[in-house]
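During the practical work, I worked with a single protein chain and the tokens that describe its fold, as given directly below.
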Amino acid sequence: MAARPAPRERVRNALIESRLTPNAISMTGLVLNAAAAVLIWQRYFFVGGIAFIIGSIMDTLDGRYSRMSGKGSQFGAFLDSSLDRIEEAIVLTAVAGYFAARHMEGPAMATAVAIGSSLLVSYTRARAEALGVECKVGIASRAVRVVILSAGLVFAKGASLGDFELLEPAVYVLAALSVITTLQRILHVRSALRAV
């Protein structure tokens, strides 16, 4: 008599056999991040932070599910990568709008720097890989940026976790680390191409 698969394996097999696609997971992440942006704009930081966290988890799951199920495609990989950039930008734009509405020019500018440099972190990796150079170096990967922004949102002033104000410091840290990571990747690619 054959052994029954473990519960985890049964769930995995059921997902693989279902009609669920990696693109559906990616689109769910987009919807959740768009909802997070609206909630942040309305100053519901804690709930917006939770929506951002769950949406970002979906962004992680789509790639894993694609590899696990064999349902991935080249377009799906392209869509996933593109949506990740869009989601990060719309949530940070909502944060910038919040600061701008409160006439907080410093944090608004830092958020703008965070948007641009976060996009550059991803762009430098994509461009490097197009040149045949693996480029996962740097301190502010997408996961690190998500953790920093999530902490800033759920511990924003007025959020239900206390009278903390971590959103402003989180934005400054995010901007600084993203700029540093972009520079790290540029220097890494220069070094790798010189060695060829």
About this structure: Residues 74-101 form the longest helix (28 residues). DSSP finds seven helices and no strands in the chain.
